[in-house]
Design goal:
The protein is α/β, with parallel strands linked by helices. 32% of the residues lie in helices and 17% in strands. The structure holds 6-O-phosphono-beta-D-fructofuranose.
Length: 440
Amino acid sequence: MDLRIADLGPAGRRSPLALSTVRGDRVCNFVTDDERVLYRVVTGGELAGVDDSFERAGPRERIYFDPKAVRAAIVTCGGLCPGTNTVIRAAVMELCYSYGVPTIYGFRYGFAGLVPGSGYEPVELSPELVDDIHHRGGTILGSSRGPQDVGAMVDTLKNMGIGLFLVLGGDGTMRGAEEIYGEIERRGLPISVIGVPKTIDNDIHLVEKTFGFETAFSIAIQAIRSAHTEAKGYLNGVGLVRLMGRQSGYIAASAAIAEPDVNLVLVPEVPFALDGARGLLAWIERRLETRRHAVIVVAEGAGQDLLHEETEAIEVDASGNVRLRDVGQFLKRRISAHLETRGVTHSLKYIDPSYMIRTAPANPNDSIFCSSLARAAVHAGMCGKTGMLVGLWNNQFTHVPLREVVGRRNTIDPEGDLWLAVLESTGQPAEWGPSRTTRR
Ligand code: F6P
């Protein structure tokens, strides 16, 4: 890994922040580039990455931009995510009150708002305008998916005199931010590009937690509770909950551990079989025989191999994500059909909270996280860092180069602590199989 962070040039100005450089004087300190966050804190075993470390985020004593002259801009892209307005608010407050930046724009409807002719005029953001936006879900700026013309977007930033550009989004958005940064670098423009990791899927590489994730899985718990109540209310009740999570099952896994009524979690990272003695259907039958109810949580990207006919064309959305088949409805049909065939009286209740888990405002812990990320992003941009996103690693805020993040994704390690916690909490089998041939 190359975790070095690019910058726009020498940071020639003193920061206006009234912080200290002396430890022990009871005044909060500036952070230096020498302060590092280790990639690997567990020693022994496999030592790959042991020498790698991230730059620690935080306010720098020397800054690149003249706060009175620089213009900042914010854009929000991709799927809606709790906490987006909280990040916007905290960034505006930090820029305005801590640094004294006079002009902050918000681009409308994602990257589309940077393209002339889109018809979406940027809005000027002020503390008054953003004052209470953290109470609302969604994004006050609007969002969109999909790439736009990179040259045209950089023209817009240049023509508007933007120096600090904050980009809120997931992996597709970070790919866009990396391309914008590349074009800015090619043209030699003094524009800092700083990403803020926004996705309920929690799947951004080299970032241990993205904002919105915690709120989303906390809301998912309500669906699990209802599924459990329904399942317990009937003889052989089955509560089946489908949750978002395209290629990473973090929402399903975390919600299930947080609400330990769940007996089975299915995620994209761990294939499962339906048929045979070691298949899912036989497992559910045994579970009903012994416990008379079962609660199942399935991530939307799980079991796609069972649903997708090889001859079928793969469709993608505007962000290039494969359009998924509905694994929830598929399991509902297959479980009911199996239990009927086996003569098991049962009652299956299917719950899909869908977009409900991502349209709420951030919960308190997520809010703290959102505001901290926003401030770290502003500090990084003001001192001229660029081509990076702010992240969290080993519970420390970090600077992560965009080039190391794009094209990769965090997924649950089936041999890691999170999945072990799922297995221990649910008591489900660690392995399914061997038959994975069923397709209907
Ligand atoms: O952005 C993450 C996410 O919420 C995924 O969990 C989900 O698969 C996807 O977005 C759905 O988004 P949309 O329907 O807006 O494209």
